[in-house]
Amino acid sequence: MSDSGEPWPVPVTEPLINLKGFNCTSSTYILAIQEETTLRVIVGITCAFSIIGSLLIIFSYILFKDLRTTSRLILFHLSLADFGVAFSNLFGDAYRFYRFAQCTPDRPNLPLLSSKFENRLCIAQAFFAHFSTICSVLWTMMLAAYMYTVVMKIKEKEGPYSSRWFMIFSYVFCYGLSLVVNIWMVCTYKLGFSPFNTSGWCGTILRSAQVTANHNPRDYMAAVLGYDIWILLTIIFIIAIYISLHFYVKREVSITIIIFRVLTSR
């Protein structure tokens, strides 16, 4: 029986203990899973369109040599990351990991996957999705930085501001940082199955923030260092780049107008 006195929407095979009025057999959780078919279809269609768009950019860069410039190379890696995000989310959406979730009497507030294979597959999907997401964010930052160097005309054929060294730094920064963050999250058990705070597929595990009243600082650290901080830094960086370019272009236009007036007045 549920807290309201009504029977569970699905049968429960093991005796469960109610912890703080919320566990994985609560009617709210089970009904939410049963009624999410429409949402899953929408998510699947969205991911499919994202995959198609990313593949068009990827194959365009590969097939047409005229498009192989540094800016389009950055866009190529950004599209690879977006493809990874869409594909991993589509896989998680279609696989429906919650089908293999089980609760035990000693851990009623945390559903676990029924086998090691599903658990490892879940962690792999979460790792790939999270890795691709951070890469996408960081490559967006690198694209803004490269456009800044182009407009400000600070590129060099050789040296620290050359396109070659810029791309080397971008590879290390985007892929290296994303790999380190995700390895840390795997080692601290922050990637896996957690239906209480994800969109139906495997992702970041934030147990205490959703399930219990005791907020764990490690959950906030995983949320901030694992994702939020990179989004925030990218937004701030792009805004700063935009403001700088705005005043630079405005100043260059003013100088051009002054020079034009001087030349035409002679």
Secondary-structure blueprint:
Layout: H1 27-34, H2 37-63, H3 70-95, E1 101-104, E2 107-113, H4 116-152, H5 163-187, E3 191-192, E4 203-204, H6 207-211, H7 217-265
Antiparallel strand pairs: 1-2, 3-4
Helix pairs in contact: 2-3, 3-4, 4-5, 4-7
Detailed description of the structure:
With 266 residues, the protein is mainly alpha-helical. It has 7 helices and 4 strands; from the N terminus they run H-H-H-E-E-H-H-E-E-H-H. The chain has one domain (27-265): Rhodopsin 7-helix transmembrane proteins (Rhopdopsin 7-helix transmembrane proteins, Up-down Bundle), CATH 1.20.1070.10. The protein has helices at residues 27-34, 37-63, 70-95, 116-152, 163-187, 207-211, 217-265; strands spanning 101-104, 107-113, 191-192, 203-204. Helix 4 runs parallel beside helix 7 (217-265). The protein is elongated and about 85 Å long. The protein starts with 26 loop residues before the first helix and ends with a helix.
**Total strand count, please?**
4
Across the major sheet, the strand order is 1-2
CATH hierarchy, class = Mainly Alpha
Distance between the termini: 93 Å
With helices defined by DSSP (H or I, 4 residues minimum), what is the helix count? 7
The total tally of domains equals 1
- In one word, what is the shape? elongated
* Strand-residue proportion: 5-15%
Q: What is the H level of CATH, i.e. the homologous superfamily?
A: Rhodopsin 7-helix transmembrane proteins
Secondary-structure element series: HHHEEHHEEHH
Question: Helix- and strand-based class?
Answer: mainly alpha
Query: How would a crystallographer describe the biggest sheet?
Result: 2 strands, antiparallel
